[in-house]
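Field reference: sequence -> structure
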Amino acid sequence: MNNNKNTDGISMFVEKLYVAVKKLISQAEFDRTSIGQVLEVNGENKYTVAAFGGRYTLTYKSQLKVGDVVRVKIPQNIWKDMYIESVE
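Structure field:
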């Protein structure tokens, strides 16, 4: 009986630790990079890109076309600074 209580307590501790670590990692300041794909060409070097599980309108210095595969970066985990880093 006592062993069951210990196991339950350890399981609860591990679950809470997992949640805390996951939250810290999501807020950590490190670069994130994703492979994305151009969905729309919006003119003036602006493109709608699918990356990180969403759709984002980003600028890029060169011409891209729908279907192009690109590398998208979020510097220091600051999402408002997301940009197209390069074309694959």
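Note: The first strand starts at residue 32 and ends at 43.
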